[in-house]
């Protein structure tokens, strides 16, 4: 059987690259493209050496060891935890490409098909993972901290006129122990020292809300947390969840606006 070595190297290197990319999406971590390209080139050379029986190890064990080394090159210390996901992608893609080759497709068509398949799976994985976890807001003030469920509110377009920061609206009841004694959200005369009033416009008309800048704000989604900056406005309504504005686009995994696209667990202007 004649084998085009150039096509064999290119196909194996490309498959390695797609498997590493797939592993990154399955584990939801950053994909280092440069290290992945280097690892894929080495992987293609490893496959060629195995084909020509230049390696002391042959068979499935050599392939397993090779992919483990590729994971370490690409992801460093995290390579071990990424290894199962990368192997899952490699087994799926190799079976897919082998089937295409058996059907008589040329290698260049298999390259495109493998890339399209991996891209589709990554997109499906990313879409499926958006907005599925609970969103929570951790607030710290005066040495005390509470954690509240949070809800995206597309109708909340408030921004603080002093700092320019977006404004998160939270009910006085939800703030609970963070509220200073004898403070009533509907009574401006009880405004605590260091707080101020912000003018808001709602469906019921204009109103003044007490607002403050907390010592710490941490937004958690899908069990991943990141600190953010915002002003908190205190309202008298009975909502137990913090209303997160559109302007607050700070997410743990760096996919800024994408997480808002999911319509679940969200309220919008007019609802």
Produce the secondary structure layout.
Elements: H1 5-27, H2 33-51, H3 60-75, H4 79-102, H5 107-129, E1 135-141, E2 144-153, E3 167-171, H6 172-175, E4 196-202, E5 205-212, E6 216-221, E7 224-227, E8 231-235, E9 242-245, E10 266-267
Parallel strand pairs: 2-9, 2-10, 3-8
Antiparallel strand pairs: 1-2, 1-6, 4-5, 5-8, 6-7
Question: Could you explain how this protein is built, in words?
Answer:
Helices cover 40% and strands 21% of the residues. By secondary structure, it is an alpha/beta fold. The radius of gyration is 26 Å and the shape is elongated. The relative contact order is 0.13. Residues 128-132 and 251-271 have low confidence and may be disordered.
Oligomer: single chain
State the secondary-structure class: alpha/beta
Largest sheet: 6 strands, mixed
Please give the number of β-strands.
10
Q: Describe the global form.
A: elongated
Number of helices: 6
Secondary-structure element string:
HHHHHEEEHEEEEEEE
Assess the beta-strand content as a share of residues: 15-25%
* Spatial gap, N to C terminus: 67 Å
Mean pLDDT: 76
The parts where pLDDT drops under 50 for at least 5 residues are: 128-132, 251-271
Q: What value does the Rg take, in angstroms? A: 26 Å
* Percentage of residues in helical conformation: 40-55%
Summary?
The protein is of the alpha/beta class.
Based on the model shown, name its key terms.
single chain, 271 residues, alpha/beta, six-stranded mixed β-sheet, four-stranded mixed β-sheet, 6 helices, elongated
């Amino acid at each position: 059987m004649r084998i085009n070595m150039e096509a064999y190297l290119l196909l194996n290197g490309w498959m390695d690259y797609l498997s590493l990319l797939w592993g990154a999406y399955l584990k939801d971590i950053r994909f280092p493209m440069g290290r992945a390209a280097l690892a894929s080139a080495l992987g293609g050379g490893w496959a060629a050496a195995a084909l020509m029986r230049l390696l002391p190890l042959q068979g499935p064990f050599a392939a397993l060891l090779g992919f483990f080394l590729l994971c370490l090159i690409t992801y460093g210390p995290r390579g071990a935890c990424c290894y199962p996901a990368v192997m899952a992608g490699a087994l799926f893609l190799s079976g897919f490409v082998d089937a295409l080759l058996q059907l008589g497709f040329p290698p260049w068509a298999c390259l495109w098909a493998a890339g399209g398949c991996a891209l589709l799976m990554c997109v499906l994985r990313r879409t499926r993972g958006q907005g599925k976890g609970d969103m929570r807001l951790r607030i710290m003030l005066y040495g005390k901290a509470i954690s509240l469920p949070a809800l995206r509110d597309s109708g909340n377009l408030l921004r603080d006129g002093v700092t320019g920061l977006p404004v998160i609206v939270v009910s006085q009841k939800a703030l609970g122990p963070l509220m200073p004694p004898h403070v009533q959200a509907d009574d401006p005369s009880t405004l605590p020292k260091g707080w101020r009033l912000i003018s808001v416009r709602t469906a019921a008309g204009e109103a003044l809300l007490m607002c403050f800048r907390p010592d710490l704000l941490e937004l958690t989604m899908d069990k991943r947390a990141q600190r953010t900056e915002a002003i908190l406005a205190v309202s008298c309504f009975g909502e137990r969840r913090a209303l997160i504005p559109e302007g607050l686009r700070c997410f743990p995994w760096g996919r800024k606006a994408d997480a808002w696209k999911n319509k679940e667990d969200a309220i919008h202007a007019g609802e």
